[in-house]
Amino acid sequence: MVRESLGGVTPSRTTLEKGSPHLKHNSLWEGTRLGLVVATTIWIWLAGVDAIVGQPLRTFTVLGGIAQFTLLHYLLNVAYGIAIVSAIHRAAREPSLVMGVAFGFFILEFGFVMLTILLSHLGLGELAWVRILGGNLVGAAVAAIVLFRTHPLAQGLRRAEAQDYD
Fold first, then answer.
1. What does the alpha-carbon distance between residue 15 and residue 122 come to, in Å, rounded to a whole number?
2. What share of the chain has pLDDT > 90, as a percent?
3. Cβ pair 57, 50 in contact under 8 A
4. Of 71, 74, 47, the residue nearest 59 (C-alpha)
5. What is the pTM of this model?
6. pLDDT class for 90, splitting at 50, 70, 90?
7. Is residue 1 part of a domain?
8. Backbone angles phi, psi at 85, to 5 degrees
9. What are residue 7's phi and psi, to 5 degrees?
10. 16 domain residue, yes or no
């Protein structure tokens, strides 16, 4: 038996054995939570960098205004969160998809490098690297921490690797 909690899924102590390899997860809820956490972290990063360099809310202004940027930023992060959590859940059932998830992450990061280059020429200047790429890397680190804390994917990968060597 698995019951939902505010943190994702919580195994029931009465019917779920410790170390059970499969828990039922809700990709929509977990992805939304991940997207909101990452979006908030990046938003704070951008506002903080802008404040430190003496250009309060400059990034938001260049990217369409505070309200428009914030709305689009949160929507895209929630969509990304749902997509990545769904992909991880699928990869847990089909381990061959792990490489696809890793490749997708690489492509996304490459896209942010290209976006940073573009924005450095369109109003954010050299600080675009700190603002955009820095924020993206901080967001990716937060996402990894959240996922590694809530999903036993790394432990499952270690078990699979150990089985290959047996």
1. 57
2. 51
3. yes
4. 47
5. 0.76
6. confident
7. no
8. -65, -40
9. -90, 5
10. no
Tens digit of pLDDT for each residue in 110-156? 998 998 999 889 888 889 999 998 999 999 999 999 988 877 666 66
Q: Which amino acid is at 63?
A: L
Answer whether residue 9 is part of any domain: no
User: What is the span of the domain harbouring residue 36?
Assistant: 27-161
Q: Quickly tell me which residue has 């202004």 as its tokens.
A: 61
Place of tokens 């929630």: 78
Burial of 21 (0-12, 13-18, 19+ CB in 10 A): exposed
Which tokens sit at 99? 């490489």
The residue written with tokens 């054995």 in the block is: 17
Measure the CA–CA gap between 74 and 40, rounded to whole angstroms.
Answer: 8
Give the count of domains, the chain: 1
The number of residues in the chain equals 166
d(CA 160, CA 138): 29
